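> Could you send the MKRN2 opposite strand protein-like C-terminal domain-containing protein prediction when you get a chance?

Sure thing. Input:
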Amino acid sequence: MVTSVLGWRKSSPELPDYPSSSFSRPFHTARAGSSASPSRLAVLCAGLTLPRSPSPRRPSESPIPFVRASQAPCCLVIKPTRGDFLHDYRSSQDLHIGVTDSEGQVYEYDCEGLHNDYTASWTQALAVPIIRDPTAPDRLDAVWKEYWNFSLHTLAEDSAWTSERYSEDSHNCYSFVLAFLQALAPPGLEVKGLTKTSLCARLLLPHGPRGTVHLSVP
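Output:
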């Protein structure tokens, strides 16, 4: 049995039939000889800022919540659109969001289209787990892990996520994450009516204060 972060429980999903090579062929859109650098990932994605903690504790009193995205498999991951949380982030700035697969590779949608070749730049991310196994909180049920990969890799093949379709305001990283959650349909999350605003309010902002403890104390 597994439970979503919203607390409902549900049995592992029935996996659809798919070719055995589905997971052995990674999705990758990096162009040969590309000169892309992490700074080129600094594309604005609309919609989410983290609140300041009203009564911040000293950073030494709370564990640092930021992780390398590669160490947070099967999660939503958030980082500043430009720079990192500890050195560059201000509460008025936009945040960028992606999805990690079971190996910790980040799938993100920006002006270059959907790609998973900048995982190394996600060194200070907030990780948001969507599904947890209450009997083993530190690892995801194997069937759900496989279904997570299947949903993510299938979505990655959709032509909706090209650089030409990208719009900073209306078709951005949050659009991709919403589409992924709708494809995954995790237990306890009503994905049919989920919007960018409710995604932020229900799943992302609850993880904000634990991060901003380290951002609000000089």
